[in-house]
Amino acid sequence: MLKVVLVIVGMLFVATVYGLVILRDEEALQMMLSLYVTLGVFVLLASRSPSAHRSLIAFTAWSSFAHAAVMAVQSLYDVGERIHLLVGSIAFAVIGITLAGLVPTKVRAAAES
Fold first, then answer.
1. Could you tell me which of 70, 52, 24 has the C-alpha nearest to residue 109?
2. 8 A C-beta contact, residue 30 and residue 58
3. Sign of the CA dihedral running 23, 59, 11, 14
4. Residue 63, Cα to own-chain centre: how many angstroms?
């Protein structure tokens, strides 16, 4: 199950390359998207052996929680983008919850090796 989730999340993050290419006038957004594209590639690589990449999976989960929190706070101040920001917050929270719930424990990781 975790491998499937990692492939889906990895592909979603890599797909942000589209925004990276078309949003030429928004440098800050391009920088953020470049990090997500890179993270997506590494998440895809981690899907081959999740137990060997526990820290990357945990980082992806916790950074998704952080991104969701920032977007939720931004939605309070940017009325014009409120729906977009709240939907994004929910999406990142779902990614974070899913990955945090599926990240291999040390005991399972050692047994799989």
1. 52
2. no
3. positive
4. 7
Say if pTM beats, i.e. exceeds, 0.70: yes
Output the pLDDT for position 13. Answer: 96
Sign (positive or negative) of CA dihedral 22, 28, 33, 35: positive
Instruction: Please write the tens of the pLDDT for every residue from 63-103.
Output: 999 999 999 999 999 888 899 999 999 999 999 999 999 99
At 22, the amino acid letter reads I
Amino acid present at 37: V
* Side chain identity at residue 8, one-letter code: I
**C-alpha span between 10 and 13 (Å, rounded):** 5
Supply angle C-alpha 60, 61, 66, rounded to 5. 95
Q: How far is CA 48 from CA 64, 68, 111, in A?
A: 21, 27, 16
CA distance 14 to 78: 27
Q: Is 60 exposed, middle or buried (0-12, 13-18, 19+ CB in 10 A)?
A: buried
Q: If you compute the radius of gyration of the chain from its CA atoms, what whole number of angstroms results?
A: 15
